[in-house]
Each structure stands twice: as structure tokens, then as C-alpha cells.
Write a structure and sequence with these properties.
The structure holds two protein chains of two kinds.
Chain A lengths: L8 H4 L9 E10 L2 E11 L4 E6 L5 H8 L7 E6 L2 E3 L4 H6 L2 E4 L11 H6 L8 H19 L14 H14 L4 E5 L7 H16 L3 E6 L2 H7 L2 E6 L2 E7 L5 H9 L17 E11 L5 E11 L3 E5 L6 H8 L6 E6 L2 E2 L9 H6 L2 E4 L3 H5 L6 H4 L19 H14 L16 H14 L4 E5 L7 H16 L3 E5 L3 H7 L2 E6 L2 E6 L6 H8 L8
Parallel strand pairs in A: 3-8, 3-9, 6-7, 7-8, 13-18, 13-19, 16-17, 17-18
Antiparallel strand pairs in A: 1-2, 1-4, 4-5, 9-10, 11-12, 11-14, 14-15, 19-20
Helix pairs in contact in A: 15-16
Chain B lengths: L5 H26 L4 H13 L2 H26 L7 H18 L5 H30 L3 H24 L21 H5 L15 H18 L1 H11 L1 H6 L4 H18 L1 H9 L10 H11 L4 H24 L4 H17 L1 H20 L1
Helix pairs in contact in B: 1-2, 1-15, 1-16, 2-3, 2-14, 3-8, 3-11, 3-13, 3-14, 4-5, 4-6, 4-11, 4-12, 4-13, 5-6, 5-11, 8-9, 8-14, 9-11, 13-14, 14-15
Classes of the chains: A alpha/beta, B mainly alpha.
């Protein structure tokens, strides 16, 4: 145990041979009327990787927040190495040997790696001894676990994958024996994710215990020893990973059988609907985000744009949707559209037959305080069929239309008078999708269609997208989920650093090749 | 998921807040050695006990309805218009210009013209901060506050140098003349055999204010413009996504807000003073903020809150007069009402929400 440096915690927490690293007994937690965790018990054995899987809102994060001392459980007990502990805050969690790597990193951007690692764990008033100690330890760790990071680099200069390593190093520096990772691969390329799992394997071999929270079945299957499934605040099952299958886990998560693959016939592309030539986009700071890309989307096909988030896909969608200005040429049905000025806004784009399901449905696609029926015409509220007369909107008519759309798109609960914020992520997305598809657009732009959407709804949303394609519409799909891109797209373009690195057919490529393109390496490099 | 029923949010919370405010006001009155029961009796008697009292209460309420709606319409676009005071001041100038420029034959002609004048001047005064916010990003709170001071100074200049009657010592305009006289409640109700007090300033503007409440409701919740204003107010990124023009919404919302504040002048300038005097608004613009806050930016709530503040104004004046309770203490009571209904909303809301959740659980069990 090379990480155990000077403090004598090992003696005080002398474990009995069979005691699990973590044991939770009967944990319950309610937020007002919502029961986030209901009588949850798990045992995680020492030196294993334990997955916790569940849909959004199943209570995974609440459970981990209780373990890390952010929330206090209403009932239940926590045992670490067989000893009952009372975790009142994150300091207590750290001294119990628990380290947490959050989905959104908690690093000081303009500090160096070393400074971040010792932050809050300095040995004394002067930094120098701590820094020297941390430097030695970092060297050791990077040799042992492929955890190499330049200790003197500023965080803001590091890639996301490296930043995550710093988070892990922070936890190890604090002598964590138990490491909790919350959706660790959401921001990583496939290669970075693979590297992360090699690191985790190495840590497990050293006797560390790892809890991996994720919604990706594949990661669970590939890296964990045991897995617990949560649904609606309850622990529905804990199984050995080797004895289960993705299908079974999905069923446990959702509570019914789910189709994991998308059933679709081969595409029959027609005339080009959207043609993009040498498109360039600058953001508010004047940084070029899209660097001269060209492509086309034909009627009856789905073009998938793959890439790690932050490589210009967001800006591409926003320019096409009229939310940002750009330069270059974009033709819609053969007619050039304005990329700057008065007629370059969402309204003008919709008039051209472009529908847009934005990446961020909370901030853009919906008004959370508005009721469902008000959201169902958002962006199309000026359409003549939604007006009662010259002055007033036809609220009753819109409500009736919303009721129909909600039934058709299986939005639950199908109540047009409910505020958007009271729907689950999947049902919110169905509202946005219903709104955009029901207007019968020629082109559908769709960003991260299933981000924060539960598995049951993912299946439905994918079916709707394919159905729209089969009606002969053009679809531009942007997603950071490679699985989604692979299974939905008829053609795949990979973006890296504002450029398209290459186009592939899903039948003729694989995740490895796409992963290399996503990391900026072209076929020749690979 | 269960939460508080709507009626509790709309009625119970403000009611409890007001009772708390009165309770603490009672403590303050006791602290200076007066009897709070006598005090509240005097206030209610003074505000509602006679047609004169009612006339004053409704006169004040009319002012507050206009300024409350003014603040509320801007607030629906998430613009905090602190400048209703100045916009109402300029509205007074607009009304005075209209009333003095034409020898009006009858009030039915003078009133619509004065409304247009007041609304136009108020809107114009709001336009400058609106433009600066929309195009330059100058914060509307800062600019509208500044514009209150500028309005006040401008009014002083205009009254002393332009509108003052030659030879008069008072910084005020000439009287508007009989054709611009608005019917008071006394005159309006006499045909129905009701003898309303002759001196009370409540006038036909009260009905205009009620009409404004109705128009406000339709504008905000039934028209495309209202839809866009609310959408922009809730999320400007979403509004941008939908192709709603941010600049247009900021400017239009502020123009409507300024126009509503300017409309107030038909009550205080045209209806009551019948001439333009200095500081005619008397802080009604600021009370409008509290009224809008308490009324949840809804016309019915604003109407009720305006009546409450009308009562505080009129009842407070009576209290100062009859009980020799200093005028400053009346301001303290008003301040407590604003504090409890506006700023301390959550103090009442949180425990009440818990209570309702507990009740719900009991029902389920």
C-alpha cells in the first residue's frame, strides 16, 4: 500500500478479515414529498469494482451524497471496514477513507496540478513541504497506475481526461481506500475512457474499493465485479456482473423489457435537403469554433455527428438553428439562407422548414415554468392556426392540440396543464420532440436526443427519429454517445476541433476507428 | 407529487403575512405608549368608515393600481423597473400639456386625449433606459433609478420656468379649466341617489384603472406579445432559441410599463389637483413595486394589494390626525407590511409548505 504515507489510520481501522469495505444498512432519505432513497442496503467487498446503475432520478446520486456527507440520511447506518461511522460532512468522509470524483470537476482552473492536489490538505502554514511531498507521491502514483500528469501544468491547460486524473490523485493523496466515481466517462473520448478503466483496474489490484455510478450498461459489463440496480429510490437487485446481461440489467432498471438495439431498414436517401459549404463560426469571445466544414444531409437519411463535447458540434447546431451567426454558405432545399442579420434567427429557420431539438432542453428547448401546452407551441406561437383572432391566441385550441400530441408521443402524465418542470427528463424531451416533429419539417436538427433521458424513453425517441427518416425527412443528429451515433446514423461524420475529421458508414467502421477520429487522428495516423 | 394548493399560495400566504405585519405594528404602537386596538380601529374607521374615507382610499388605490401594473408588466419580462415614479411624473407633464393646450368642451373628450398624453410621456421616459438596456446592456435598475431623479429635476425646471402662471408665487401650472374636470364619485353616484362625499378625490380614473387590470390580463396571458414577454422573462436563452427578438421585447415591455405609470396622471394630476404641481406622484411609483410584489404580478392580486395600500395611506393619515401618532410611525407600519409581504415571503411559505405536505401524508396514511 504505497499510498498510505505517514498517518497511522491503518492501525485504528484495523479491519476484520471478512468485513466489507462499505456496508449500507437501511438508508432512507426524503426531500419533501419525494422519497429519493428507500431502505437501501448494499455490501461492497474490499478490492472490487462495484457498479451502481439506474435511470436519472433513481436515487444514485443521493445515495452517494449521503455516503460522502453532503446529505444526512433520515434513517440507516453506514459501516466502513465493519465499523459503524457517522458521516456528517465531507471531512468525515475523507477521514473515513472515502474519495469522490464528481461528474463536474471541482478544480481551481488557474492553479497547477500540485496546488490542486494539496488544496485543503496542506500540512502546515507553508506550502513548500506539502508540495514536495505531493510531488514525490504523484511520481510514485503515476509510475504505478498510469496516472501520469505533469505536476506543474495549470489545470486549464489540461485535457478533460487529465483533469479527471487530477481528481483521482486528489482522492489518493487524501489516502482514500474507497473511490466513488460519478458518471466518469461522460466527458471522455473512448480512448480516454479505456485508459480510465485501466487505472481503475490497477487501483483494484492494489486493494482499493471502487464504486462506479453510471447509466452506461457497457461500462458496467466491462469493468465491474458486482452491480446494484436502482429504480425509483429503491435497490432492485445486486448481482455478480459475470452472471448477468445488459438486457437483464436494462429490464431491472426500467421494470419492463427494453429493446436495446434500434430496428431500422436501410436508408433510401433522396435529394440533398441541407447543403453546408465552408461554414465557419466564431463564439462571443471571437474564438473560431467551427473551422470551415462542408457536408450535406439528404432526404430520408440520418447524418450523425460524433465527437467529444466541445469540438464545435454545439455551435454547428446553433448556427443551423439560427441562434448564432456564421460565415460560409448554407442551402436549404437549394435556396441559400442568411447566416447573419435580421433573417438569421430561429423564427426564420422554422419558416424554412428547419426544426431544432436543442442540446439543452432546460435552458433552450423548454420554458420550465410554462405549462405543457404553452411549450407545445414555443417557437411556432405566431403560426396562424394557433390564433383565435387578430389579437388573441387560441389557447383552448392549443390545449386540445397538445392533448393529442401528448397521447401520440406517450408523454406521461398526459396533462397539458402541468408545468414543464414537473415532467421527467424523458417526458420533457418527448414534448420537445413532439413539438418539432408535428410541424412536419423538412430537416430536423437534433442535439443529444437522449441526454438525461431514461432507457424506456430512449427506445421511444429513437423509434420516432427513425420513423421521421422513413417519411423522407432529413435528420442531422449530434450526440456524444457513440452507441447512439452508431445505431441511429446512416452516415457518420466525426468532428474534432471544429473540423470534420472524416465520414464513415456505420457498417464499415467501428468504435475504435471513430474513437481515433474523435481524438483528432486521421486514418493515416492510426 | 403534492404541493400547496393554489388558494393557499394566492390567499393564505399574503393574509398571514399581513397579520404578522399588523402584529408587529401593534408592538411598535404599544412601545410608544398607545393602544394598538384603538389605533387599528381609527385606521379602519378612517379608511372605510365614511364615504369620504372610502373616497380617499380608492383615490390612493387608483394610483397604486397603475404603478403596480407598470412594475408587473416589466417584471414579466424580468425587468425590474424602479422608474415608475419618474415615468408617472412625466405622465403628469403629458396630461398637463394635453389639458392646457386645448380648451376642452367636455371631459369625455379630454380624458382619452389626456390618457394618450400621459401614456406617451411615461412611455417615452421609459424608452431611454429600455434602449440602453437592450442595446448597451446598461442595467435597468440603475438607469431607471437615475431617471427618477432626472424626472424630478426636470419637473422642477418646467414648473418654474415654463408652466408657472406669471405673477404667481406657487411652482404650479394654471388650472386645467372646467372642460377637463373629471367626474368625482360624488358626481357619478348622485344620479343613482347615492350621496358620496363631495370632497373625496376618487374619480372616474378608478374605473379606467379597473379597465387597465382587465386589459393587462388579456395582454399578458392571451396575446402573442404577452406570451413572448413571459417567455423572455422566464428564459432569455430559450426565447433566443425560439427566435424571439430580445431587443424588441425589452423595449416593448418597458414602453408598456412606462405608459401604465404615465396613465396614473389622469388620477392625481387631472382628477385630483386639476393642475400640475410639484411632487404630484408622492412616492406612488415606489409603492407600485410593493403592490406588484404582493399581488404576484397578477391584476387581481395587484388590485387587492392596491386597496390594502390605499387603506394604509388613508388610515395612516387619520391615525396621525386623531391619535397624535407621528406620521413617521405610519411609514414604519407601511414598511412592515412591505417587509412581511415581500421580503419575508419565504418565512411564511416554507413552514406552510411543510404543513401541507404533512397534512397530505396524513391523508394518504
Amino acid at each position: 500500500m504505497s499510498v498510505q504515507t505517514d498517518k497511522g489510520r491503518q492501525e485504528t481501522a484495523a479491519p476484520t478479515a471478512s468485513a466489507p469495505a462499505i456496508e449500507l444498512r437501511g438508508i432512507s432519505k426524503a426531500f419533501g414529498p419525494v422519497q429519493a432513497n428507500k431502505d437501501i442496503s448494499i455490501r461492497v467487498e474490499k478490492g472490487t469494482i462495484h457498479g451502481i446503475i439506474g435511470e436519472n432520478g433513481a436515487g444514485k446520486s443521493t445515495l452517494m451524497s449521503i455516503l460522502y456527507g453532503f446529505y444526512k440520511a433520515d434513517a440507516g447506518e453506514i459501516f466502513i471496514d465493519g465499523q459503524k461511522v457517522d458521516i456528517t460532512d465531507s471531512q468525515a468522509a475523507i477521514s473515513a477513507g472515502i474519495g469522490m470524483v464528481f461528474q463536474h470537476f471541482k478544480l481551481v482552473e488557474n492553479f497547477t496540478v500540485l496546488e490542486n492536489v494539496i488544496l485543503g490538505a496542506e500540512d502546515g502554514g507553508l506550502l513548500k513541504p506539502s508540495i514536495a511531498k505531493a510531488r514525490k507521491l504523484l511520481k510514485q502514483l503515476s509510475d504505478e497506475y498510469e496516472l501520469s500528469v505533469d505536476p506543474d501544468a495549470l489545470i486549464e491547460d489540461l485535457s478533460v481526461g487529465h483533469q479527471q486524473r487530477v481528481e483521482i490523485l486528489k482522492a489518493l493523496y487524501r489516502q482514500a481506500d474507497i473511490l466513488i466515481l460519478d458518471e466518469p466517462t461522460g466527458v471522455l473520448t473512448p480512448a480516454e475512457a479505456d485508459h480510465l478503466f485501466r487505472i481503475l483496474d490497477g487501483l483494484r489490484a492494489e486493494g482499493k474499493t471502487i464504486i462506479l455510478i453510471t447509466h452506461k450498461l457497457r461500462e458496467i459489463m466491462e469493468s465491474t465485479d458486482t452491480v446494484s440496480v436502482m429504480r425509483r429510490g429503491e435497490m432492485t437487485a445486486t448481482v455478480k456482473t459475470a452472471e448477468t446481461s445488459p438486457e437483464q440489467l436494462a429490464e431491472l432498471m426500467v421494470g419492463r423489457k427494453v429493446l436495446l438495439r434500434v430496428d431500422k431498414a436501410a436508408a433510401t436517401p433522396g435529394a440533398p435537403i441541407l447543403e453546408v459549404e465552408n461554414l465557419r463560426v466564431k463564439d462571443d469571445q471571437g474564438v473560431e469554433r467551427v473551422k470551415g466544414i462542408s457536408f450535406e444531409v439528404r432526404a430520408g437519411e440520418i447524418l450523425g455527428i460524433a465527437g467529444v463535447s466541445g469540438n464545435g458540434q454545439t455551435e454547428l447546431l446553433e448556427v443551423l438553428g439560427g441562434m448564432m451567426d456564421g460565415t460560409g454558405t448554407i442551402r436549404m432545399n437549394g435556396e441559400e439562407i442568411d447566416l447573419t442579420g435580421k433573417y438569421s434567427d430561429g423564427k426564420s429557420r422554422r419558416a424554412r422548414g428547419i426544426a431544432h431539438v436543442p442540446e439543452d432542453r432546460h435552458d433552450e428547448g423548454l420554458i420550465l415554468e410554462f405549462q405543457a401546452w404553452e411549450n407545445m407551441v414555443f417557437g411556432y406561437h405566431n403560426a396562424p392556426e394557433y390564433q383565435k383572432n387578430a389579437l388573441l391566441m387560441d389557447n383552448a385550441g392549443i390545449k386540445a392540440m397538445t392533448q393529442k400530441s401528448m397521447d401520440k408521443f406517450d408523454v406521461r402524465p398526459p396533462n397539458p396543464l402541468l408545468e414543464a418542470k414537473s415532467f421527467s427528463g424523458g417526458n420533457q424531451q418527448k414534448i420537445v420532440l413532439a413539438r418539432e416533429i408535428e410541424r412536419n419539417p423538412d430537416l430536423l436538427l437534433i442535439g443529444q436526443p437522449t441526454r438525461g433521458v431514461d432507457i424506456g424513453a430512449i427506445e421511444f425517441i429513437h423509434q420516432q427519429i427513425v420513423a421521421l427518416r422513413d417519411e423522407g425527412k432529413a435528420i442531422l443528429l449530434v450526440s456524444v454517445e457513440l452507441d447512439e451515433i452508431m445505431s441511429l446514423s446512416d452516415r457518420i461524420a466525426v468532428m474534432f476541433d471544429g473540423k470534420i475529421m472524416g465520414e464513415r458508414l456505420p457498417s464499415e467502421t467501428n468504435e475504435g476507428e471513430l474513437g481515433l477520429l474523435m481524438a483528432g487522428m486521421t486514418g493515416e495516423d492510426a | 407529487m403534492s404541493k400547496m394548493p393554489k388558494w393557499a399560495d394566492a390567499v393564505l400566504i399574503p393574509l398571514i403575512s399581513i397579520l404578522l405585519a399588523f402584529f408587529f405594528s401593534g408592538l411598535v404602537i404599544m412601545a410608544i405608549g398607545k393602544d394598538p386596538i384603538v389605533a387599528i380601529k381609527t385606521m379602519v374607521q378612517g379608511a372605510f368608515g365614511s364615504t369620504q374615507g372610502i373616497g380617499y382610499t380608492l383615490y390612493y388605490a387608483t394610483n397604486f393600481i397603475f404603478t403596480g401594473l407598470s412594475v408587473a408588466v416589466a417584471y414579466h419580462a424580468r425587468l425590474f423597473n424602479i422608474g415608475s415614479e419618474g415615468q408617472a411624473t412625466l405622465g403628469g407633464l403629458g396630461v398637463a400639456v394635453v389639458c392646457l393646450a386645448v380648451p376642452w368642451p367636455h371631459w369625455t373628450l379630454a380624458l382619452p386625449a389626456a390618457m394618450i398624453g400621459g401614456a406617451a410621456f411615461g412611455a417615452a421616459w421609459a424608452f431611454i433606459p429600455a434602449y440602453l438596456q437592450a442595446k448597451r446592456g446598461s442595467h435597468i435598475v440603475i438607469t431607471t433609478i437615475m431617471f427618477n431623479f432626472i424626472a424630478s429635476a426636470l419637473m422642477g425646471y418646467v414648473l418654474l420656468n415654463v408652466l408657472k402662471v406669471p405673477g404667481s408665487m406657487a411652482a404650479e401650472s394654471a388650472n386645467f379649466g372646467p372642460g377637463a374636470h373629471l367626474p368625482t364619485f360624488h358626481e357619478m353616484l348622485a344620479p343613482f341617489g347615492i350621496n358620496f362625499n363631495k370632497n373625496a378625490p376618487a374619480n372616474v380614473s378608478f374605473l379606467v384603472a379597473l379597465l387597465a387590470c382587465v386589459v393587462f390580463y388579456f395582454l399578458i396571458w392571451r396575446t402573442r406579445l404577452g406570451y413572448e414577454i413571459r417567455a423572455f422573462g422566464q428564459s432569455d436563452t430559450a426565447a433566443h432559441y425560439a427566435g424571439i427578438n430580445r431587443v424588441r421585447i425589452v423595449i416593448i415591455a418597458m414602453l408598456i410599463s412606462g405608459a401604465l405609470a404615465g396613465l396614473m396622471a389622469i388620477n392625481n394630476v387631472m382628477g385630483e389637483a386639476e393642475r400640475l404641481i410639484d411632487n404630484a406622484v408622492e412616492g406612488a411609483g415606489f409603492i407600485g413595486i410593493a403592490v406588484a410584489l404582493m399581488g404576484r404580478n397578477h391584476p387581481i392580486g395587484i388590485f387587492l394589494a392596491a386597496i390594502l395600500f390605499g387603506f394604509l395611506y388613508q388610515g395612516g393619515a387619520e391615525l396621525a390626525f386623531w391619535e397624535s401618532i407621528p406620521r413617521e410611525l405610519i411609514v414604519v407600519i407601511q414598511g412592515l407590511v412591505i417587509l412581511f409581504t415581500g421580503a419575508l415571503d419565504n418565512m411564511v411559505r416554507a413552514p406552510l409548505e411543510k404543513l401541507f405536505i404533512a397534512l397530505d401524508k396524513k391523508k394518504e396514511a
